[in-house]
């Protein structure tokens, strides 16, 4: 029977929402307990469905994990790639946007705990580590490299070893995400992420900008 005003029955809306509910529950448990210790029955229970229902959407735990990464992290990389490709302003402004937006989209979210999970368990699950390298690490590194190459080509950034500079830029942000999910909750000394990232950006730009672009005095720490 057709429903008035295009409103779906409650059970149908529930069915449509199940994959997202399962992914949200899986992300919570992967971050809380790690990959090895997360059981599919626990994911199903937290999502409020049966284990059999989970198997209707995901073949196994590995496919569920991949779906979590593709849902919570990969889209942010795609959006950043598009923004960098179309951006027409100064490269310093672009770098600020990339760092701030990465934290807003990934670092400040529960998805940031995936980085800690992979570092802890990659050796035990090499296939997952390779998947994460292909779909997250390689793409994110290429994105950062393209931004640095843009700045050098425009004469805004000093010549540099792009591969090395890319890793130097990624490492402090990765450290902040790891801190958040390890000693951060127990550390009585407060490390405020926005202040940390503002200081990081300021220090990076002091090293990157040519003299013509204000490399001798980059005081803006937005």
UniProtKB/TrEMBL annotation:
Entry keyword Transcription regulation: yes
Extent of the signal sequence: none
Highest taxon, organism lineage: Bacteria
Binding region for DNA: 39-58
Molecular-function GO term, any one: DNA-binding transcription factor activity
PROSITE patterns: HTH_TETR_2
Protein name: TetR/AcrR family transcriptional regulator
Organism: Zemynaea arenosa
